[in-house]
Specification:
With about 200 residues, the chain is an alpha+beta fold. The chain has two domains: about 90 residues, Alpha-Beta Complex (Hemagglutinin Ectodomain, Chain B), CATH 3.90.20.20; about 55 residues, Nucleotide Exchange Factor Grpe, Chain A, domain 2 (Roll), CATH 2.30.22. The chain contains four helices and six strands; from the N terminus they run H-H-H-H-E-E-E-E-E-E. A hairpin with a 2-residue loop joins strand 4 and strand 5. Helix 3 runs antiparallel to helix 4. The longest helix has about 60 residues. The N and C termini lie far apart (about 150 Å). The N terminus is likely disordered.
Length: about 200
Amino acid sequence: MTKQNIKDQDVTQEEGFAAAEGNTSCEEPSTANMADHEQTASDTMAEGEESQPALEPTPEEVIAVWRDKYMRLQAEFDNYRKRTLREKMDLVASGGADVIKSMLSVLDDMYRAVAASEKSDDITALREGERLVLQKFEEALRQKSVTEIEAQDKEFDPDFHEAVARFATGEDKKGKIIDVVQRGYMLGDKVLRYAKVVVGE
């Protein structure tokens, strides 16, 4: 093979390589494509900046908010305490006035009984009048849920009775109340006054 043939073959191979390189997909992007790409990237960055959350509050701001809430809550609780205390005082006062009002009619009857006893010598009539006043007084108490504690001949119960003395008795009276020194009373389910009693043993 001559030198001329070798050179012609080299030229042919170089032209083939150039043609192959021209047909590949790894072309450099055009100037217009690069401009579109940069515009899309800038738009994406702008949207990302707009969607960022607001700045977190500083510790001092958080403390100030909670201090304000605490002060408001404390003021509300103080007002509630004062209001409930005032309502309780009003309730006690009105309840006491209601009881006293119910007792006034009994007091009127007692005055009339005393005046009648000064003018009359009829003991039977006077005793009957006293009995009526007593019944009216007991009825007034019952209307206020005040009832007497049963004690006579009952088993001694420290939840309702207070033993002031003990006397030796037979087996049938042992542990039972044989005498009531002072009556006891209940207000609803609560003991107002324990019954003072004498217990057999």
